[in-house]
Structure formats: C-alpha cells, structure tokens
Batch of 2 targets.
Target 1
Amino acid sequence: MKKNSVNLSQTVRYRSGPGYDHNHFPFVPLNERPNILWPNGSKIAWCVYLFLEYLELDPPEGSIRDPRYGGALGSHFPDYLNYSVREHGNRIGFWRILDILDKYNIKPTVPVNAMLADRYPRMVQECLDRGWEIAGHGISATQMITSDISPTQEKETIAKSLEILQKIYGKKVKGWFGQDYSQSTSTFKLLSEFGIEYVAEFPNDDSPYATNYNGLICIPNQSEWDDTQLMAVRRLMPWRWRDVVCEAFDYLYNEAHPSGTVMTLSIHPWLLGQAHRIKYLDEALKKMTSYKEVWQTNALEVAGHYRNSCTKQRVNND
C-alpha cells in the first residue's frame, strides 16, 4: 500500500516524543494532580455557558463555518431557513431561557459573537444587568478561526472581537470560547498576548489545568453533552439530552475528585429555546439545583480560584 505523503508529513511535524501532538500543555494524568478545594467545602464547581451567536446570511468570501450546521436544503444563497432558525434563538429563545435561568438563580458565563453584540446590544445588556460574565466568542458563527486563515487575519479577528465586547461590557474580557471549538495552532499564544486569562476550547478534562502560555488556564467545556452536539448533530431527543446532562452531573458530583471537578452545561438559545425543548432545560436545572455543596459560578471565577490555589501550593512547597 502506498504511503499517504500528507499524513506522513503531519506525523513527522507533530510527533517527536512522548505526550501530545501539540505543545499547548503537558500531559498530566488524573492521579498526579494537586488537590483543589472549592469554596465553602463544595464538592464540585458548576459552570453554565449561555452562547449568544450570530449566523450571517452572506458571510465574507473564504470564511469558514462548521458544515454540520448547514441548511436542511443544502448550501445555497439566500439560506433563509437556516438563518431564521438561528434568529429564532435571538428573537424568542434567548428570552425564554432568561426566565428559566432567573428562576433558578443561575449565574452563567456568556460567550458572545462580536456581531451579535454589535447588532443586538439589548441582549448583552440583559446579561450585564444580571451581573453575568461576558466572554469572547469570535466574530460570528460563520467566521471560525482555523489555520486556514493567515496569522494577521487571526490577530485582527481576535482584536476586533475583544474590542467590540469591551465597549459594551465596560471592561476587558478575560475568557475565550472558540466558535464551535475552533482555533489555529497559534490561537492560545495570541490570546495570552491579548491578556486573556482562560480558554474553554478543549473537551479533554473535568478539571482546570495550566497551559504553556503565560498563565493561560484551560477550563472544561464538554462537547459530549453540549446541547448542539447532541441534539442538532447526533439527533438525540430533548428528553434524552436532559437525562444525559443530569447523569453527567450526578456522576461528577458523587465522584468529586480532589483535583477539582467542574461540571459544565452549554446552552444555545436557537436550539434549547424552541417550544418543544425549553421544558427539558427547566427540568434539568431543577434537578441540578437540588444538589447541596455545589459552587455554581462563572468560568472566570473557576480560573481565578484554580490559579490562586496552585500559587499557594507552590509557596507552601517552597
């Protein structure tokens, strides 16, 4: 069989010893990690992510989007069907979800596309009025960051996104969620240079961990029970999604690993805000909020607590 030269070159480029196929952070197995104690003796930390996104009807030429979320009738212009489904989340779904989050006193982190903040500032203001954390989330759902764009373009994209959010947020954004988990090989380095303190890009862990970029922290962001991954891509029924996220919460709560477990729950208004799904979000939150000794907080607080805990342990060990 003839060797695939492309795959061979990739293997040579990335694999040069033990560890990962990248240099973003080291491999640290679960049984070799420091203990992290959450505030008030909590067994786990719990972060809810409320994604506010804008899907462009006519994105710039050469822009990249996740093809799994294409229109039901295929790729064409104008794709009013797919565009309108997303806009239902901004017109209707978001407001339904606000009521449910308020009902259970949930304080989420809100990753925001810059174009949504620019076009629909009222939505962002509703979050700010509640004291919720705003995080970077790129320009739009149709402009993903990958290594297919130039380094200059990537830097400009990050700068523009953070600048637009800062204007409405009133302070610097400290967290970053790549659109549909996307990044280039340089994204972490660039984000650290922009003063970002944490990223939620890799669904590879249940605890925070350090990267190799100037104190940048990775915060858990699980794709395995992300609402869009399960219901839009894998076509799970909404009641099964409810069961999945509750089962994940229950297991992590009872495991309560000393390395500092973080349960994450992702919410996209265009999906969970639909009339046939919204009650299952209500039911999931009702069950999750019934647990005692849970630190429900935002991602920035988790990153800060993790950083401070690791700093104290280093001082004590010295």
Target 2
Amino acid sequence: MSQLTVEQRFVAASDQLPLVAILRGITPGESVAIGLRLYEAGFRLIEVPLNSPEPFKSIAAIRQALPDDALVGAGTVLTVDQVRELKDSGGELTVMPHADTVVIRAAKAAGMACTPGVVTPTEAFAALAAGADALKIFPAELVTPAILKAIRVVLPKGTRLLPVGGITPDNMQPYVDAGATGFGLGSALYKPGMTAEQVAAVAVRFVAGWRVSLTLCPNQSTEPGICH
C-alpha cells in the first residue's frame, strides 16, 4: 500500500479527478468490473452507498481490485458502528448525507477521509472543525450556484466543495463558476442494471464535461474554489 496518508491520497485523487462515483444499488458480483472501468476512465474516488445490497462486500472487492491511488469507501454512512464496519472492510472514504460531528470524528479517528453532507454555513464550519476533508453540498438541487457562491465566500480558502444531486455532464459549469471543486455523481452515472461498458461510456462523458469546465475556469486546477 502507499506510504502516503489517507488525507494525502484523498488530495492527490481529488487533484487528478475530483468526481466521486456513487454506485448506489451495485452488487458484489458486478462491482469489480464496474470499478475497473471507472478507474480506466480516470475516476479515483468511488463510494458504495450502504443502502446497496451487501455494500461492504462490494467495497472490499473494489478496494482489492484497484491500485492504491484510488480511494474506495461508503456513502450514506449514518452511525459510528457503520464507520467501524467500513474500516474493517478496507474502506478509506466515508461519505455522509448529513453533518453529524460524532460520525465525522469517528471516521477521522479510524484513519479515513470524510466528506459529510452540508447545506448551510453553520453545518459547513462544524463539519470542518470536526475534521472533514471535503464538504458534500447536498442536495445540490436545493443549493443553487448562487447560494453555493455565497457560502464559498465565507469558508476557508481551499475548502473542497462537492455538489451532489442532479449533476450531469451538461450542468457542472455554473457550479464550477460558483466555487465547486468537484462533484458526486449518482444516478446520472450509474443505475442498477447498467453494464460495465455502459457505465464506462457515461463516465467518459462526465470526465470530458469536467475537463471543459476547467478550460473555462483555469484557476480551478491550482486554486480549488477560485474561478476568475
């Protein structure tokens, strides 16, 4: 395994491609094939939500199949017990729909990267104080680019903001302009029943969409959250 810390690996993965693949509903039997195709497309951050069938088996299988520059973990993490089980399965990334600081601290104590869900500045600052590595802006349908921009202004420089919910290859740019540093990609990337080849084709479109957003916001690659 890499000699880098999980936090360092999270930063490196985010710098390479700050798109989190959310594989809600995936099964262990198909997880490796889909994980490998996502990796080939450039993805380095993969989460299996815990309301998927046998999620910890899928997480363990994907983790074992991918190189060390990828981080694999769980989404919809709600409790400290789930954090422990995730760690035991080899997970390195804890993604939450909420900002429970007890769960955030548990994930950090277990040596994992943590991206909790926030909507307000109050939640954002509390999550950062608890050790969050990035903030999941969720649901993005509720937090418009204008609202994101207002929140971005008051947060510490370099805070990583990842809108999640309703993101497609075609609607990333307004969020990037407002200060988003990446995205979580759900049903627009993967739905249960999709083949690895189908997921790969969609993944390529998302990567292309992100690259286009960088050409229109060149500072994003060197100063996360800054677009001018």
